[in-house]
Amino acid sequence: MAKKLAFDRGLFAVVLLLVGIGLVMVYSASAAIARESGADWNPFLVKQTVAACAGLVLMATAMHVDYTLLKRPLVVYSLLGGVLLLLVVVLFGPALNQTNRWLFVGGVSIQPSELAKLALVPYIAYQLDRKEAKVNRPEVLIPTVGVTLLMAGLVVLEPHLSAALVLVAACGLLLFLAGLSWRFLAGGALVGLPLIALAIWAEPYRRARLFSFLEPEKDPLGSGFQAMQSLIAVGSGGLLGQGLGHGGQKLYFLPYPHTDYIFSILAEELGFVGALAVLGLFAALAWRGLRAGLHAPDPLGRYLAWGFTGVLVLQAFLHCSVALALLPSTGIPMPFMTYGGSALVTALAASGVILNVSQHA
């Protein structure tokens, strides 16, 4: 192992800025809904702040525990087995909004599909660290693709198709960066795309989302309501925005303003300049994460940094695409910003691993 250096302060600052902006936007976007609780404080902000503190503690821990512990099979397979167990248990838990995505433990909700990213990326990195030169052979493809499809299949059963696709994309990205042949990528696409189409067509609500995405203006008060209101929010922000806290779409016009459409509220209140600044922070995160992987002393560190960076940036891209009506509504959170403890803690833990890798060269 090369000499341990100082962690990437630029990346650290970017993460803290995104968390800070996220807390402010959760407070603003949830203001109208929070009044309904009758409390003297905003419960969404309180819960998100607690999650941020827990996530920052986990990030600091991940920064200082040597990532080479993930070279040990016991650590990797214990993490993987624990998450797989949670993905199974959640299917038999109480339903919320007709889905089984959350486990409730002591008044705290846990979303196993978010934790799955923290197990899958280290598992694939562990496999590539040991057998990087055999990336196009069954001894790599079978365990990596098999575990990914198992995890993704359990997540689809919740149902949460978009989260499952993020897991598959993370696997594909890491294998591609390891040198996977184009013929395997093409074969995977030929098999995967029909399966995705089938999964969409099999569920009426997914079909409705797809059709409303294609032509939201045909039913602006029904299936196209969310997309139209999101575009109104983004468009009304203009260059400099309506002003922090002065957005109108969060006043019961745009559904789920503090979760699925937090970027729309940000664009409305902070304008094009504010939205571009946030996207610039994610671009900086992508660059610093790529740089950490490039300078990593071993394949494990390289794929850990690239895998977690890819997951965070991909989620941000998908979330913004939904806000701009470039993709159907997916429920993918904006890392560091969307209200939700599991998503925030997962994003900070992933950032801690990237920062850990950045300390080695």
Concise synopsis of the structure shown:
This protein is mostly helical and 361 residues long. The chain is built from 13 helices and two strands; from the N terminus they run H-H-H-H-E-E-H-H-H-H-H-H-H-H-H. The chain has one domain (9-358).
How many helices? Answer: 13
What are the segments in which pLDDT stays under 50 over at least 5 consecutive residues?
none
Quaternary state, please? single chain
Q: What percent strand?
A: under 5%
Helicity range of the residues?
55-70%
Number of domains: 1
Please specify the SSE layout and strand pairing.
Blueprint: H1 9-29, H2 31-35, H3 43-64, H4 73-89, E1 103-105, E2 108-110, H5 112-131, H6 138-156, H7 161-177, H8 182-202, H9 204-214, H10 225-237, H11 262-294, H12 299-323, H13 341-358
Antiparallel strand pairs: 1-2
Would you mind describing this structure in some detail?
The structure is a single chain. With about 350 residues, the protein is an all-alpha fold. The protein has one domain (about 10-360). It is about 65% helix and about 0% strand. It contains 13 helices and two strands. A two-stranded antiparallel ribbon has the order 1-2. A hairpin with a 2-residue loop joins β1 (about 105) and β2. α10 packs across α11. It is globular. The model has no long low-confidence stretch (mean pLDDT about 90).
